Amino acid sequence: MSEIAVVAISVAKPGYEDRLREALEGIVGPTRKEQGALQYDLHRDVQELRRFVFVERWESQEALAAHAKSAHIRAYKEAVADWVEHSEVRVVSKIV
Asked: Is 80 part of any domain?
C-alpha cells in the first residue's frame, strides 16, 4: 500500500462561487472521516476567487477509489453539475 496525493481543482461559473463553496465545505467533514483519508483540505485561489483547490492525501489508490464512489461525493457531483465551469483532478505520488 503506498500513499498518494491528489490536487483537485473546481472553477465555479460566474455567480455560483458561494454555492460551490458551500457544497465543497459540506463534503470536507464526511470525507475526513473516510477510511484511508490522511488529509483533505479545501483552499481558495487568492487571485481567482472562482477557483477552489483540494489538497488531499490518501493511504492508497483503493482508498481514493472508495472515496470517489461514496454517497456524499456522488450527491455533491450531482448537485454542482450546473455550477462548475471546469474541474480537474491530478493524482500524484511523492518523490522526496
From this structure: yes
Look at the block and give the residue holding cell 490518501.
58
Cell readout for 44 is 481558495
Under DSSP, is residue 19 helix (H, G, I), strand (E, B) or coil? helix
The confidence band for 1, taking pLDDT boundaries of 50, 70 and 90, is low
Cβ neighbours of residue 46 closer than 8 Å, sequence gap 6 or more:
none
**Other CB atoms within 10 Å distance of the CB of residue 68:** 10
CATH code where residue 62 lies:
3.30.70.100
* Amino acid occupying residue 67: H
Average pLDDT over residues 31-37: 98
CB distance 75 to 26 below 8 Å = no
* 9 and 84 Cβ atoms separated by less than 8 Å: no
Banded pLDDT at 2 (limits 50, 70, 90):
confident
What is the domain range of residue 65?
4-90
